[in-house]
Every structure is written in C-alpha cells, then in structure tokens.
Amino acid sequence: MPKLRGEAFWRETLRSAHYVVAPMVDQSELAWRLLSRRHGAQLCYTPMLHAQVFLRDANYRRENLYGEACPEDRPLIVQFCANDPEVFVQAALLAQDYCDAIDLNLGCPQMIAKRGHYGAFLQEEWDLLQRMILLANEKLSVPITCKIRVFPDIDKTVKYAQMLEKAGCQLLTVHGRTKEQKGPLAGVASWEHIQAVRKAVNIPVFANGNIQCLSDVEECIRKTGVHGVMSAEGNLHNPALFEGRNPLVWEMAEEYLEIVRKYPCPLSYVRAHLFKLWHHTLQVYQQLREELAKVKTLEGIVDVNRELKLRCQEEIANQKEGEKPKEGLPFFHWICQPYIRPGPKERCRENGDSGTEKGVRGKRALEEEEDVNSELLSKNKQKKKLRNPNKSFDPSLKPKYAKCDQCGNPKGTKCVFNMCRGCCKKRAFKEVADCPGHGLLFKTKYEKSLSWQHSQRGIQTPEVSQRGDAEVGETAVLKEAGDS
C-alpha cells in the first residue's frame, strides 16, 4: 500500500488532529503523552532524538522508543535532529515501525543545537535540507514532516516552506519565532508569518507559539487557517489545556504519577514536570520547592504532592469570601494555569536595571558571546565565584598543559612516558615498568613477588625433606606391589 501524502495523511493517519503536543526534550515522554491524550490531545510527538546516537546505541533506542508497547499512544510522530542525510535516514528506518511519521527538527534554537550543527541552525543550508528530505521521502515507508522557525522576512520564510514542500515534506509545523527569539527574549510569535506559509503551501500546516489556553487555539486557527495547533509550555503548565479546563494542580500530579508507576521514566523528568505544574504554588510554599528538589524516589514525590494538597486545602478552607488571586494571576495558585514569561523590559526591571538588555544578558549572552565578564557569568559559574572569589573563567588565563603522546589529554608532569595516567598505566602494565610520577610500580612489585617466591622455596626444614623422601619410597613400594 503506498504511503499517504499531504491532506490524506493528515486526515486518515493523523485522524484530522487539531490539538497537538509538541516534541519537548525530556518532557514529552510516554507517561506525559498519555496524560495529555486523556485530556484532549489528539497527536503527540516524541522528545527530540539525536539521530547519530539513536543509530549507534541500542539502549538509547530502547529507552526512548522501543519500550513497552502502548496502543493508546497513537498517532505518534518521532522527531530527530540530524545534519547528515544518510545518518538521518538510517535512524528513521529503525524508528518507522513504531510511529506514523518521522519529523526533522529544524526549529531548536538552543546553543547545544548550534554546537551540534542541527535544528534552527540548518535553516540557511537549503541544499543540505533538500537532500535530507528527498532521501527520507524516497526510503521511508512513513511520511516525512518538518518543524521550522521563521525568518524575520515573511517572503523568505514562505520560500523556505515551499522548498521543504517540494523536497517531499508532507506536513509542516511553523513556530512563529526566529531562532534568536528564545528564553527572556522570546517575545510574541508571529501568526502573520504562519498565515503566509499556510496560504503558500499545499500540505497541512500546524501553528506553534502563543498558545496558553483553548481560546488561543481557536483564535489561532481562525486567524491563520492552519490545520492544527501545537502547544509546548502551555501544555506543561496545564495538560488539560485542550479540554478548556483548569484543574487542581495536585489532581493532575496524582494522575501523572499513577501513569509513571505503569510506564516508568527517569525521576528527573517527573521532577521537571511537577516544577512546571506547581510553578505558581511553589512561589507560595518555598519549603516544598526544596523538598521536591531533594527527593530521591517516586514515593517521595508522591509524599510531597500529598503535603502540597493538604496545605492548599487548608488555605482554601481559610479563604475569605470575595478574596481574589494574588500576583495578578487569573486563577488561585493551586489551579493549573499558564506562566507568562516576563519580556525583556520586565526582566530588566526585576533585576533593577534600566530599559536596556543588560538585565537579561545572563547565561544566553555568555553562550552567544563567550564573554567572561563577571556580570555575564551563568548562574552556575556565579555560585563557583561566590565559593572562590579568586576563580577566573577567562580561557586565556587557564594553564596550558602538555599533551599526552598517545591520546592528547593532559600528560602527567612527572610521567616517565610523557603520557596521561590512563595511557601510562596501560603501557607500564604491558612493559612491566615503573612510573613513580603516577604511582605505578608494576616492575617493583613483580621483582618483590619473584624474591618472595624464591625465598619460600629455600625455606624447607630437614624433617620435611626426610618425610618427603619416605613418602616417595612408600609410593614406589606400593607401585611394585601393584605391578606384581
């Protein structure tokens, strides 16, 4: 049976999905996808998977896709990041039997994507992208889809989308922000760009960006004409977003934790989800934030949720009539609701700066500019600086180490072989040699062992020797008797 394409693929395979949960690294795992599907999501993506790692590592495949079969988790699209056509297609071939389509990530704007040369940092390499999609479209038994970010220029964004369609992309998700719009600089997504793409291509289009509640979904579809709407952060703060409900935070947590019991995932994923679900409540109960950060077991997290529930219920019981939510929230903090990121100006005011961008130039500015000014250090480096005020992060001031002759790692300063400890240990063992610089004494220990064995052979008493001779004589007599 030939694979379905375009509108037919969206209508029949994806069941005309309008409500879509985005691919989120370490956050759109099976348990969360099942929770989202129970509350209105019609299509889910896996977390972004690294094609190269997926291809070479069987454990990575098992942990991220080949786990326990779950018929409820369909339709499902597997997303990969890649920058090599052959690697991408070989990884996709290993995944295609477990999903309904393969998605190429062309939207990740993070620094790790820049360093790995994938995601949104491929959006200028149209020839490479054409080859990747053409090969995938030819080799795979399932459709190929793409998730992109926009260019500042609408016309270029439209041409980009048309190029992907021509290469063989069967569905396009458009995040209405540029790759520079991230974190505190995210700003508002441009639905105008999305609308222009929708009008210019003949394949289904999903919109991504500015989705915090069901009314946003409906407005986006009305304004852009897209086939469906994808949510990431809105879904993390309220997994019932597509139902148009705002449930109690502990109820969503209880349901999620029950699913995790059946479909386990790393505890770090669970903790991250609860930090999102409980975001507003943890501003009130700071102690529970610390407990959630320290807890080491799923049962411990269940206990924290139970404590959070009791505190909220006590607060509800003591609530005064007519009391309104604090901090400008639309609902009380114990109700699932969106978290609106402060924009650059608001973040500047929070940090006590003027209306410049200085206030938001933290970790991201450091990543972009590799600046070592103390004001631009990441939070982790700032903590190290507090512990050791004399510590410098200037790469030009770091000591220069001589390299190991074997592997290129820093060599030991007193190594007799001019190697790092690992390479030195292998060579010293092979040659039965000593390296005092690394504390490796294979030759010395071997000589001591030989000396001890020699001394043991020489310490035989006359009595022992005589008894041994008698035993030998007795054995000879018995042998003679046996022969006769």
TrEMBL record:
It is an enzyme of class 1 (oxidoreductase). Residues 346-366 have a biased composition (Basic and acidic residues). Residues 21-310 form the DUS-like FMN-binding domain. GO terms for molecular function: flavin adenine dinucleotide binding; tRNA dihydrouridine synthase activity. Its cofactor is FMN. It catalyses: 5,6-dihydrouridine(16) in tRNA + NAD(+) = uridine(16) in tRNA + NADH + H(+); 5,6-dihydrouridine(17) in tRNA + NADP(+) = uridine(17) in tRNA + NADPH + H(+); 5,6-dihydrouridine(16) in tRNA + NADP(+) = uridine(16) in tRNA + NADPH + H(+); 5,6-dihydrouridine(17) in tRNA + NAD(+) = uridine(17) in tRNA + NADH + H(+). Its EC number is 1.3.1.88. The keyword Flavoprotein applies. Residues 453-464 have a biased composition (Polar residues). It is found in: Cytoplasm; Nucleus. Its main location: cytoplasm. PANTHER family: TRNA-DIHYDROURIDINE SYNTHASE, TRNA-DIHYDROURIDINE(16_17) SYNTHASE [NAD(P)(+)]-LIKE. Belongs to the Dus family. Dus1 subfamily. This is tRNA-dihydrouridine(16/17) synthase [NAD(P)(+)]-like. The lineage of its organism: Eukaryota, Metazoa, Chordata, Craniata, Vertebrata. The gene is Dus1l.
